[in-house]
Design goal:
Chain lengths: 126, 163
């Protein structure tokens, strides 16, 4: 055995739980193993917390194709345009725009292909 | 003992390594413990990888200027604070001290009441003064931002071309 899988850990935990239920004193080896399982679980929780934070942040920073959905009414967003003058490369440039269902994008020319929400301004720190 | 600290793990690993060096067969308990340490280390590596990825993404969030400034000349998105406490946002560039020459940045029409350049006697040239400038897409005139910048963020990279 090189590593513990979560199924193996479950099995061992059951075995140890059986002793504890009977109020048996755990041997040193089992106490050490139980502590290791606790550490593994703690790390696993941290991994899951980070993964969900990462997922949330990735979604916030994703360019959303206009074909997928449009931004909230009147909300200022980043917009990627087709065939404008170049700001960062020769294909597209972007600036902030508002979208309104009655007037469309607050722009006179060029087609919006993607948009991205602006991050909220941080609250003033005292 | 409720959990293992990394120092305790190090100690146990040393003890086990000692047996392995002597080519002793490990007892079942030690093999199990070693496997647990390997699992802990693996999870720890994953935590560190995720944290690094998260920190990289946080770079695309608002960064307080009190924390650090962008690279000189980089176009960024900024949030300014007026004297009345109103916040507004826009595109701007920050220029560090003696990093951009006047002739590389400004045309004649920019001369205002407040000079935005400084003379460098040693090198006989004019530098753009350190500070924040409005970024205009037309790119000909440069105006110093009138309100202090409190936050800035990198411009998002453009969407990848999908075929």
């Amino acid at each position: 055995m090189e590593k513990w899988t979560s199924i193996e850990i479950q099995g061992e935990r059951k075995r140890i739980a059986f002793f504890l239920e009977r109020n048996d004193e755990l041997c040193v080896e089992d106490r050490e193993l139980l502590a290791a399982f606790n550490t593994i679980d703690e790390k696993q929780d941290e991994i899951e917390r980070l993964q969900s934070e990462l997922k949330e942040l990735k979604e916030k920073q994703r360019w959303i194709p206009v074909t997928e959905r449009l931004p909230e009414e009147g909300k200022e967003v980043w917009a990627a345009l087709k065939d404008g003058t170049a700001m960062h490369n020769n294909k597209t440039w972007y600036r902030m725009l508002r979208y309104s269902s009655s007037f469309g994008w607050s722009l006179y020319t060029s087609e919006v292909t993607h948009w991205m929400a602006l991050p909220e301004l941080p609250k003033e720190e005292e | 003992m409720e959990k293992w600290t990394s120092i305790e793990i190090q100690g146990e690993r040393k003890r086990i390594a000692f047996f392995l060096e002597r080519n002793d067969e490990l007892c079942v308990e030690d093999r199990e413990l070693l496997a647990a340490f390997n699992t802990i280390d693996e999870k720890q590596d994953e935590i560190e990888r995720l944290q690094a990825e998260l920190n990289a993404l946080k770079e695309n969030q608002w960064i307080p200027v009190s924390e650090r400034l962008p690279e000189s000349g980089q176009s960024v998105f900024v949030a300014c604070l007026t004297e009345e406490g109103r916040k507004y946002t826009g595109l701007a560039q920050y220029f560090g001290e003696k990093s951009v020459l006047e002739e590389d940045f400004i045309d004649d029409s920019c001369w205002g009441e407040e000079s935005i350049t400084e003379y460098d006697e040693e090198n006989d040239c004019y530098w753009v003064k350190e500070g924040w400038f409005e970024f205009s897409l037309e790119g000909e005139r440069a105006y110093r931002l009138s309100d202090p910048v409190i936050f800035y963020m990198a411009l998002p990279e453009l969407p990848k071309e999908e075929e």
